[in-house]
């Protein structure tokens, strides 16, 4: 259901909707008059068909009244294409341990890959603390997104959209590099260890009711460093 608060619409949008609703003199009505006229129209329709929850318009418009058929006629509204014409790949950082990757093939390249039987995969490059690492993630032609496990530290990551057959490797798109996030507490563990309250608060958020740490590489590394320091003493 499309639900829009009519008070948030611009004057041109209100006039466009009022015209589609058949409200007389809509081109010359001011903003408040248009809002009142639309509210009255929706309330009249609500009373006429009060048995359906979708007709409770109040201060909104809904696709129950067929708005889906003409919402594209609103000023500034354009239809999104089913497929994009460009082959692109993007990488977005979710947190210090995970990144989200999404991509699209142009129809021409997708058809060529399917016709020639090429395999598709993601080539991930990661530079962290001055060390380069690369790995590949197999993908199907119909795939469009993937979650990637990444290390934390000082560095960057990028991903390439690749197809290959019989040693012929073709790079179709490369994402922008994203900056990796380092763990503040891993680099400043003495600050946490000196404050029992801070230590308890940070770890309690990542501890199960049985007292075990949830799977989190950063926390595991911090705890391991604390254990090594205690043993050394």
Question: Secondary-structure blueprint of this entry?
Answer:
Layout: E1 4-5, H1 11-20, H2 31-48, E2 60-61, H3 67-70, E3 88-93, E4 98-104, H4 107-116, E5 119-128, E6 131-139, E7 145-149, E8 155-165, E9 168-174, E10 178-179, H5 184-187, H6 189-193, H7 196-204, H8 217-232
Antiparallel strand pairs: 1-2, 3-4, 4-7, 5-6, 5-8, 8-9, 8-10
Helix pairs in contact: 1-2
Task: Describe it.
The chain has helices spanning 11-20, 31-48, 67-70, 107-116, 184-187, 189-193, 196-204, 217-232, and strands at residues 4-5, 60-61, 88-93, 98-104, 119-128, 131-139, 145-149, 155-165, 168-174, 178-179. Helices cover 33% and strands 26% of the residues. The N and C termini lie far apart (64 Å). The protein is an alpha+beta fold. The protein has three domains: 4-73, no CATH class; 88-179, Immunoglobulins (Immunoglobulin-like, Sandwich); 184-232. The protein contains eight helices and ten strands. Strands 5, 6, 8, 9 and 10 form a five-stranded antiparallel beta sheet that branches. A three-stranded antiparallel beta sheet has the order 3-4-7, with no helix packed on it. Strands 1-2 form a two-stranded antiparallel sheet.
Reported for the largest beta sheet, the result is:
5 strands, antiparallel
Shape call: flat
CATH class of the largest domain: Mainly Beta
Total beta strand runs: 10
How many separate structural domains? 3
User: Over all CA atoms, what is the radius of gyration?
Assistant: 28 Å
Q: Report the structural category.
A: alpha+beta
Q: H/E series, N to C?
A: EHHEHEEHEEEEEEHHHH
Helical segment count: 8
Low-confidence stretches: 50-65
Strand content: 25-35%
Provide the CATH topology of the largest domain: Immunoglobulin-like
**What is the fourth-level CATH superfamily of the largest domain?**
Immunoglobulins
